[in-house]
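ERR on first pass: missing label on line 2. Operator R.T. fixed the label and resubmitted. Corrected input:
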Amino acid sequence: MKKIVILFSGEGKNLHNIIEKLHPNVCEVVCAITNKADAKGLNGLQTKSLQAIKSEVLEHTSFSSREAYDTELVKLIQSYEPDLVVLAGFMRILTSVFTQNIKAINLHPALLPKHKGAKAIEESFGSSDTMGGISVHWVSEELDGGEVISQKSFLKSEDETLESFTRKIKELEYELLPETITKILYKL
Ligand code: GRF
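pass 2 clean. output:
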């Protein structure tokens, strides 16, 4: 069975969605790692499937540099020997210590290469773009700049609000990320 590690920082809705859709039949989620001890997504992992999902907290606050943190993170990830690492709302800028050692994909809530960065939803909603959408891309040293693997989009409606726009993005994320993980793992 193929193994994945998932990194997250907050709500973890995508983490839980991946577990529900893929674990353990399509791939094994061998560990969920967060940099925040109070991440909401940690809740419920014990009862998520017949076998509890293992989680680890590696807080960035106790490290003196991004490189020092990434060195520990890489070691922790490698100890699980995953086939793929999935960043699902992992709110960290990664250094080359990470990108040169870990094969990872990231979920981004806009149609890259447009609207990189942490305010992607607000920016794409506020732009003159006629479409909204999401991307899954390979993680590289450039923030949200790695090669795009897959995208899904929708037409903005005339009465679109930030709330309805955000909801559509989330719905697409719950479809696209598990689909893309499956395709990469089994080279579909
Ligand atoms: C998602 O919207 C993703 O696009 C972005 O971070 C968010 C994570 O949400 N990178 P959640 O923690 O999965 O609920």
